[in-house]
Amino acid sequence: MLSRLLKEHQAKQNERRELQEKRRREAITAATCLTEALVDHLNVGVAQAYMNQRKLDHEVKTLQVQAAQFAKQTGQWIGMVENFNQALKEIGDVENWARSIELDMRTIATALEYVYKGQLQSASS
Q1: Angle CA(44)–CA(48)–CA(54) in degrees, nearest 5?
Q2: Disordered: where is this region (predicted)?
Q3: Per-residue pLDDT tens for 65-120?
Q4: pTM above 0.70, yes or no
């Protein structure tokens, strides 16, 4: 009887050990699956962040190229405007010179006319 009780006790202990080992393996498997799922989820986020960063880097490079082109074009426009402004100043200078010459010519013409009329009056008297 004592040996039967001992055998039953050992059998129950073995069953409990096997059940405990089975549960331990299931827990390890579940923990592994959970860990893999978490890592996969994190990897998706990391991959998305990496792709976004690559897109941003590409956009930054494109923007830098476009900004350089715009700066170059703006410099050309500024040069053209400065040249145009200088040409306008020169035209203004020529116009002022022409007015001055015209005024001088009118003064000379008036003086010549005055002298001519003075000579006509002297000759007729």
Answers
A1: 145
A2: 1-20
A3: 999 999 999 999 999 999 988 988 888 787 888 889 999 999 999 998 888 888 87
A4: no
Q: Hey, how many other C-beta atoms are within 10 angstroms of the C-beta on 108?
A: 10
Residue position matching structure tokens 């200088």: 86
Q: What six digits make up the tokens of 29?
A: 């498997």
What's the CA gap between 19 and 39, in Å, rounded?
Answer: 30
| Half-sphere CA count of 11, side-chain side, radius 13 A | 6
Residue 74 carries which DSSP code? H
| Residue that the structure tokens 């880097």 belong to | 57
The tokens for 80 are: 């053209």
The contacts found for 115-120 with CB under 8 angstroms, 24 or more apart, are: none
Amino acid at the residue 113: E
Give the distance, in angstroms, between the CA of residue 38 and the centroid of all CA atoms in the same chain: 37
